Amino acid sequence: MGTIHIVGLGPGDAGLITLSAFRLMQKARCLLLRTAVHPSVSMLDEAHIAYEALDRFYEQGTSFDSVYQGITDYVLDRASEGDVVYAVPGSPVVAERTVLMLEKEGAGRHIPVVVHPGMSFLEVMYTRLRFDPVNGVTIIDSSDAGQVPRDIRTPLIVTQVYDRHVASDLKLSLMDIYGDEYEAQLVYHVSLPDESIRPIKLYELDRCDQIDHLTSLFLPVPPVERDVVSEDGETPQEGMPFDLDPLVQVMARLRGERGCPWDKRQTHKTLRRFLIEEVYEMLDAIDQNDIEGIREELGDILYQVVIHARIAEEEGLFSAQDIVNDVTKKMIRRHPHVFTDKPLENRHMSMVNWDRLKQSERRQQHDHLLDGVVKGLPSLLAAYKLQEKSAKKGFEWDTAEQVVAKVHEEWQEFLDAVAEGDRDHMEEEAGDVLFVLANLCRRYDIEPECALHRANNKFRSRFSYVEDCVRASGRDWSEFSLDELDGFWQKAKREERKDAGTPVRRKR
Fold it and tell me: How far is residue 318's CA from residue 180's CA, in Å, rounded to a whole number?
């Protein structure tokens, strides 16, 4: 039974290997290297020091856990034959999982393990970045990025950013905490001739060419935001501020490697109908004055926002924070009378200024005025928006009475088409009637889509009441006259008036 001596190969420059480590490797009966993919190994070759590299375990393993377990088992088996010197990159006590495993499992097999001091890349980083770790620092392996606390208040060093795939997973985890614009320091081949330390935004991390097993990331301490004290004296920490992060984290897990198959399968296009459904369910809750329903449906809409943001973030397009930043900037930009010293005299001037500022934005610039009305809108809402936009150019009747006259004119044309028996003409004239009615609603600041949605819900509720009355009577529908059914209908209306103004509470 031998002893395992664990030494470090230093950060990369062979001159930074300790003298005691070099002598142990020089005299070793059995020298095992966790990996030969390290710059200092060239010095062993030049000194004709024989060694066995264990890189084959990386090629055979299906995960890092299996790789490290295979290496640990092999080193322990060799130690059962005699003394072993096990050399690892950097320092044996910095980000070296196999060292911890050897100490634990060696004790179980009564094999002594001696860890010798060594120099890691951290000492070089501290020097290059002029950073004193005495005030605290958090050091993690890139595979442990999900364990970074959200309220971290120390600098963070992430080691062994092996490749772009690892960098992509790492950036998604870190951007949820620091934001995608957060500036870190990319540390590449520290202590080697091609050493590079440069600033990088987190969203750019997986687009960088300088990524391999000798790449690390340094993130300074996040700035502490000024406490905002509310009127009741509570700070954000005490008063539980609005925080989107829990939902963002849930979505990251749902679409992660072990997430939900349905969520992982979704795209922007497959989610279209769900977004529309959630908006209409929200309108329904508003129409019913269902306070709990409004709260629930707003959450469902927020879920839609977050899953769309996550999909875009995975594709490197934008993040949830981008959405928040963009809409915040847009609202500030479109309300200079609120966020600057420029006053506005009335509501009309506010709307004019809003439109002028909106038109100056790139996505609002079109070849034709009506191109700005989305073609996928519900037809009544589209009719409202089309006439609203054209009216701003003066294409508008002078009075509401003229619009009413136009409604009568279009209605008569529809009746004439009915008399003709031409269904295609009837459909055309019916469309004209609805289009002008949408314009009449607009003149009185009524959204026709919302008005019709409300009418649909009202009909649904009243007819359900009539249905309940028929069922309670024990008679068949055919046995009732229209006057009797209308009596149930009128009773439903009276019940609605009785309940008017009382918030509806959703049954659970």
Answer: 9
Q: What is the pTM of this model?
A: 0.43
Q: Are the C-beta atoms of residues 180 and 151 closer than 8 Å to each other?
A: no
Q: Is there a contact between 65 and 88 (Cβ–Cβ < 8 Å)?
A: no
**299 and 255 part of one domain:** yes
Encoded amino acid at 260, one letter = C
Q: What is the DSSP string of 455-503?
A: HHHHHHHHHHHHHHHHHHHT--GGGS-HHHHHHHHHHHHHHHHHHTTPP
Residue 375 has what DSSP assignment?
A: T
Same domain? For 109 and 132 the reply is no
CATH classification at residue 284: 1.10.287.1080
Its domain, for residue 469, covers 450-500
Residue 102 CB contacts under 8 Å (≥ 6 apart), including other chains: 4, 6, 72, 75, 76, 86, 113
Question: Can you give the CATH number for the domain in which 96 is found?
Answer: 3.40.1010.10
Sign of CA dihedral 139, 142, 144, 148: positive
Q: What is the pLDDT of residues 442-481, one digit of tens each?
A: 889 888 888 888 888 889 889 999 999 999 999 999 999 9
Task: Count structural domains, the chain.
Answer: 5
Same domain, 203 and 138: yes
Judge contact between 448 and 437, C-beta under 8 A: yes
The position carrying tokens 């309300």 is 335
pLDDT in tens, 165-203: 888 888 888 888 888 788 999 999 888 888 899 999 998
